[in-house]
Structures are given as structure tokens and as C-alpha cells.
Design brief:
This protein is α/β, with parallel strands linked by helices. It has 3 domains: 164 residues, Substrate Binding Domain Of Dnak, Chain:A, Domain 2; 147 residues, 3-Layer(aba) Sandwich (Rossmann fold), CATH 3.40.50.2030; 247 residues, 3-Layer(aba) Sandwich (Rossmann fold). The chain contains 28 helices and 18 strands. The strands form 5 sheets. A 6-stranded parallel beta sheet has the order 8-7-6-9-10-11. Strands 15-14-13-16-17-18 form a 6-stranded parallel beta sheet, sandwiched between helices. The longest helix has 35 residues. It is globular, with a radius of gyration of 25 Å. It starts with a helix and ends with a helix.
Length: 680
């Protein structure tokens, strides 16, 4: 072997720099530990594997075997007519639009299949086929029934009387499940939007017919040689995205609330430091709460706690990752262990006795990491298995949920004695108040005297609150972990913009300590700080998991209904953001917000840069159609400033760009205001 070859062989493998990889101290510590133990993580892989430049631009087509056809931007840029074509003649705009709406289809399918699973379990509960699931929130059931065309009262002897709850539940379940594949009509929840927005969708022909059909039609249209007009392609992408946001996701949230209880604010913690060395640590990870809800109950039972103590543990510590974490957080206070990028690190602590995963955002590399430790990695969903032989599959069945959960929890307890490496749990964790929703925001802002969104509107109009931002989404290892999330949120609240958060952004904010009322006095502008102090809420309100973005849509609808800020969501001083997005679900979410009238900024990148005409269409022209549009800004400070500029533009259009004098209202004024609200 030559000296040159020896030098190449001896060249050390590139690894991630912890300080560059994340702003979170716990994450940095665990990256160092992983590297010392020789365990490869996603942070290291991001150093050695670079993204495809053409794929990032959205102009690589692999929809037939003549390709892939790769259409890079000319080095000198595009001047005049764009002559780039694939083998079949597909233009860069066609290719980018096809790729973009295929991402919408993937994201909508993921969210909506989650919703379908919940609807099936709901139907099982309504039919009394399972003793493990029962309706917990009757009020929410009665609230959503009319939106599905289900009567809550019947006429008996000429009088209206309450209908039997079991009958209501069964009809709601059957009607909801029918939304995925009904042959005629439109998605029923579309009419929950403000009337002006609904009419806009109807005029533009984008009302979804059913959830599954719009996803399937995207796959058909993007097949080789079908739809070749980027405007028509994005129109179908709009139908599918709306079927996600106002259909599958919204149904998932509502049915979960009815089954498991509507969240209300509670206190918890977040980050790897919530794990306990002297406890059995069980981590649930994924996105569907139907099994994790039962695992929570089983793990907290006296039987299992006593069994854990018999094995030498002091108890059982539950934790979560990703949106399953957010689901059990907002209903039970179970603390999130971390965000998407921390899933391998939870095992590397050496204290994870079992990681129980369901669907979406789960690294296959978890199996490789688990091999280096004692952790039992358990898959539970029939559509989400792993090929590695050390992964245990215990398939979830709603009819045997309690039995399956007991088996899983017992397996974790039995594994406590098998810890094979030194336990190293970072001490870092943040306190949070989570569990907000449309109902609790209304209560906190309006109080027992008059629960409504008028108080929020009033404080937006008088200038104390500059506007509202929805900041959501994933982590992306191509950026510094949590830096985009935290920088954007801090910049917004510093400028008196109240933030609604879901998903990994919510977990990141909790880790940073931004989800407590005390945060307001430290990080907020004077107006927002005053409001938060008065009503006792954080400046960042955690609304739950990714499917719970539908709560943001309904909150925006309630703001419109309360009056004084326009007739449509696009009139509001509001903006959306996904600073560190990575999944197809984020594209679907982004597009249903844009199509609902929200200016939406993504960080990292947007897979449209290689098709400037199509890029300009979604970033400029869509605003003329739906009132919302896309934007891209990787720099988190500039990202937030773009959102603030849009909010200021909307304030000016509404004529509220100057602060209004404070008016002391008497009871007559309040009664008049309440009467006006009821008439809306």
C-alpha cells in the first residue's frame, strides 16, 4: 500500500461539532458522549452527507424510469425564456410543481391517516366494542356534532329533548369516518371557516370532495404525462392541503379531545433532564396517542409501580418525543424528553429502558443505537416496522389496548436490571405551562364574566398586542438545532407579537423556558408583557401536536368572529412560520395555512428555487387568490422581521397602525359589546 493510500485510510472520520450542532446544552453533552462511545448520530451523518443541490431546488424528476432528469439553474441565472426540459419535455416549473404537491400529498396522507386511525378507535368506542376507550368530553362531542350534520336534539311529542349520547357518538363516528372516502359532497368541516374564506375556496374550485380522493388525485396528476400546468397542479395541491388542515387533522384533534379529554393548561417540564436514573424510563415516540394514552394509565397504576419497585427501581418515569410527547403532555403533564433530533440521544443516556414508537419522524437508526445499549425498541403500528432483528414488534389493537400496554410496560420494568453502560443523564430541563386550546384561550382572555376572543381583538386593536404568529414545525439537522425556533420566537415576543406554537417548536420553547407566564417580563415588549401579566398566560401558548395546527385555524376563525379585525383570516395581523421544517407534513401544513389566507415563512430552504416562475407564483401570486402566500428566509432574525412587517402591513390596512386611547368601559358598554358579539 502506498503512503498516500495509508494516509487516506488513516484519515479520521468527520464528526459533528456539538457547539455548532445545537444551542441546547443537554444535546451538546449527549453528542459528546455519543462520540466518546463511538455511537454515530444524525448530527455526525449530517457532516459527512451533503444535500443534493438540484434536489433542494426542486427540479429533479424521477417519476419515470427515463430519468432522473436533473435541471440545475444555469450558472449565469435565467435570462429570458427558460429552455430547460426533461426528456419528456417537462419544464422546470412543471417538475417543481409536481414535486411540491407530491410533498403535500405525503404530508396530508400522514396527518389524515393518523386521523383515520383515531376515527376507527372512536367508532369502536361508540359501538362499545372496547372497554379501554370511553368518551371523556361530552361537551366537545356535542360541540362538534352539528359541524358533521349530527342532530343533538330530537322532537318528542312536539317538544325538543336531548338526544341519547350513545346515538350521537355513533353517528358522529360514522359520519367522521365517511369523510375519508364518501363518493359525493365536500369535506364538511370546510364550513367552519369564516364565510368569506369558504366562498373564496368555492369560487376558486378548491373545496375538497373527500380526504383520500384529493391525495390520490395528486399522485395521478403527477404521473408522467398527465398534468403539465404548474397553476393547475398547485390548485390540486391546495385541495389536498385543505383536506388535511380543515379535514383529517381537524377531525383527529376533535375526536382525540372527545376520547381523551380536551386539554387545559397544566405545568410540566421538558428536555433530557426529565429522565431519572433510579426509575424505569419509558419513552413514547411518534404521533398517534391511541396507544400512549393507555400506556400512561398502565404506567401510573399501583400494580406496575409496585412491580418496578420489586425490581429495584423507585418508580416509573414516562417521557415523550415528538408529537406523541405533545399529546400526552397536554392531557397528563407527561414531560417531553426532547424534539425530533434528540431521539437517539435519549437512548445514549443509558437510562432508556424502553422506547415505544408508533408512526412518523422515527429514525431507523434508533435500532442501531439501541444495539449499543440495553434499550428495548418496540414498534407498535402495522404500517411502521423496522428491518433490524433487535426491534420488537407488538402490534397495537384497540380491542386489546390494555393488554398490549401492560406487556410493554412490564417488558420495560424487567429490562431495568439489564443496564449495561454507565448512566449519564444531562441535568438540563425547562419548566413549562402547556395544554392551551381554542376553549382555554377564550376562557383565559375573557374570564368567567365573558368568555370570548374580543379581549384578544381589543388588545390587538389598541396596540398592546401587535399581532399573532403561529410558529410550528420540526427540527432540521441542516441547521443549528433549536436556534431557528428560539431566535424567531424571541424576536416576535420582543416586538409584542403573541405566539401560538405546536409540534417540536413547542418542545424547543419549553426547553428554553419560554412557556411560563414569568417569561413575559424578561423577553416581551411592554404591551404583550402587560397583557400576559394581567391574565396570567405565557407569551408563547403551546397548542399541542402537529395535527393540532387545526387549533390555530379555529382560533383565527374565532378572532374573525369576535369582530373588529376584518371578515377573513387574511385580514388579520397574523403570520405563520416553520423555522426548521424538514417533513412533507410541514409542506402540507404550510400550504393549508397559505390557502387559508396566512402569510407563511419557512426557514432552511423551499424546494422551488430551481423554478423561478413557479416560485414567484406561490410566493406572490397566491396572495391575490387566497390572501396568503409563501415566503422563504433562512436567517431567523430576518425571518421574524418579515413576519412583523407583514403584521404591520395588515394593521395599516385595518386602520389600527396607531395606538388607541384606553377607554374605561361601564356595564352598559359591556352588555352592548356582548350583544354585538352574539349577533356575529
Amino acid at each position: 500500500m502506498t503512503e498516500e493510500k495509508k494516509a487516506k485510510v488513516a484519515k479520521p472520520k468527520k464528526i459533528a461539532d456539538p457547539g455548532t450542532a445545537s444551542i441546547d446544552a443537554a444535546t451538546q453533552e449527549m453528542i459528546v458522549r455519543a462520540q466518546e462511545l463511538g455511537v454515530e448520530t444524525i448530527f455526525d451523518r449530517a457532516v459527512t452527507m451533503k444535500a443534493c443541490n438540484i434536489g433542494v431546488q426542486g427540479t429533479c424528476c424521477k417519476n419515470c424510469s427515463m430519468g432522473p432528469c436533473r435541471l440545475p439553474l444555469p450558472k449565469s441565472g435565467i435570462e429570458g425564456e427558460d429552455t430547460r426540459k426533461g426528456l419528456c419535455g417537462a419544464t422546470a416549473n412543471t417538475i417543481a410543481a409536481r414535486n411540491f404537491i407530491r410533498m403535500v400529498a405525503g404530508g396530508a396522507a400522514a396527518h389524515s391517516d393518523h386521523g383515520r386511525c383515531v376515527a376507527e378507535v372512536f367508532l369502536s368506542a361508540a359501538r362499545k366494542e372496547s372497554d379501554d376507550y370511553k368518551i371523556k368530553d361530552v361537551d366537545k362531542l356535542l360541540q362538534i356534532a352539528p359541524h358533521l350534520g349530527v342532530e343533538t336534539m330530537v322532537e318528542v311529542d312536539g317538544k325538543k329533548v336531548d338526544r341519547d349520547l350513545d346515538e350521537i357518538a355513533l353517528e358522529v363516528a360514522e359520519t367522521a369516518l365517511n369523510e375519508w372516502g364518501k363518493p359525493v359532497g365536500e369535506v364538511l368541516y370546510m364550513k367552519r371557516a369564516p364565510k368569506a374564506l369558504y366562498e373564496k375556496w368555492k369560487k376558486n374550485g378548491v373545496l375538497p370532495r373527500n380526504i383520500d380522493r384529493e391525495i390520490v388525485e395528486i399522485m395521478h396528476r403527477t404521473h408522467m404525462g398527465v398534468d403539465q400546468d404548474f397553476r393547475n397542479l398547485i390548485k390540486q395541491g391546495t385541495r389536498a392541503a385543505l383536506a388535511d388542515g380543515w379535514g383529517g387533522s381537524m377531525l383527529a384533534t376533535d375526536l382525540q379531545d372527545v376520547l381523551f379529554g380536551t386539554p387545559y393548561p397544566l405545568q410540566s417540564e421538558a428536555n433530557l433532564g426529565v429522565m431519572k436514573e433510579d426509575h424505569v424510563n419509558i419513552i413514547v415516540h411518534g404521533h398517534e396517542p391511541v396507544l400512549s394514552e393507555i400506556i400512561v394509565a398502565v404506567a401510573q397504576s399501583r400494580e406496575m409501580v409496585d412491580y418496578a419497585k420489586s425490581k429495584g427501581a423507585k418508580g416509573i418515569q414516562l417521557g415523550g418525543i415528538c408529537c406523541t410527547a405533545n399529546e400526552i403532555l397536554q392531557r397528563h403533564g407527561v414531560p417531553p424528553v426532547g424534539t425530533f433530533l434528540q431521539q437517539e440521544l435519549a437512548i445514549i443516556t443509558g437510562a432508556c429502558d424502553a422506547m415505544v414508537v408508533d408512526i412518523q419522524c422515527i429514525f431507523q437508526n434508533l435500532a442501531n443505537v439501541a444495539k449499543c445499549f440495553h434499550t428495548k425498541l418496540i414498534t407498535t403500528h402495522p404500517i411502521a416496522k423496522m428491518e433490524q432483528d433487535n426491534v420488537i414488534h407488538i402490534e397495537f389493537d384497540e380491542h386489546h389496548a390494555l393488554e398490549d400496554s401492560r406487556r410493554i410496560v412490564k417488558m420495560a420494568i424487567d429490562n431495568f436490571e439489564n443496564r449495561s453502560t454507565e448512566v449519564m443523564i444531562p441535568k438540563h430541563k425547562g419548566v413549562q405551562v402547556a395544554g392551551f386550546g381554542v376553549e382555554s384561550i377564550e376562557y383565559h382572555l375573557g374570564g368567567t364574566f365573558r368568555g370570548s376572543y374580543f379581549t384578544l381583538n381589543d388588545n390587538i386593536i389598541n396596540g398592546r398586542i401587535r399581532g399573532v404568529a403561529g410558529v410550528v414545525g420540526c427540527n432540521n439537522v441542516r441547521t443549528k438545532h433549536n436556534d431557528g425556533h428560539i431566535t424567531v420566537v424571541k424576536e416576535l415576543i420582543k416586538n409584542d407579537v403573541i405566539v401560538l406554537t405546536t409540534g417540536c417548536n413547542g418542545i424547543a420553547c419549553a426547553m428554553e423556558g419560554l412557556l411560563t407566564p414569568e417569561t413575559a417580563q424578561v423577553f416581551c415588549g411592554p404591551g404583550l408583557a402587560e397583557v400576559c401579566e394581567t391574565v396570567g398566560i405565557p407569551p408563547v401558548l403551546h397548542l399541542g401536536s402537529c395535527v393540532d395546527n387545526s387549533r390555530i385555524l379555529l382560533a383565527a376563525t374565532e378572532v374573525v368572529r369576535a369582530g373588529g379585525l376584518g371578515e377573513d383570516i387574511c385580514d388579520l395581523p397574523a403570520a405563520g412560520s416553520a423555522p426548521e421544517w424538514m417533513s412533507e407534513k410541514a409542506i402540507s401544513i404550510g400550504h393549508y395555512f397559505v390557502s387559508s389566507g396566512v402569510y407563511t415563512v419557512f426557514g432552511v430552504t423551499l424546494p422551488t428555487a430551481g423554478a423561478p416562475v413557479f416560485h414567484d407564483y406561490i410566493c406572490k401570486d397566491l396572495e391575490k387568490i387566497y390572501g396568503g402566500m409563501w415566503d422563504i428566509e433562512p436567517d431567523p432574525v430576518k425571518h421574524a422581521k418579515k413576519m412583523i412587517a407583514h403584521i404591520d402591513k395588515k394593521r395599516k390596512e385595518l386602520g389600527i397602525d396607531k395606538a388607541r386611547d384606553r377607554v374605561l368601559m361601564d356595564m352598559a358598554d359591556r352588555r352592548e359589546m356582548e350583544a354585538a358579539y352574539q349577533q356575529v
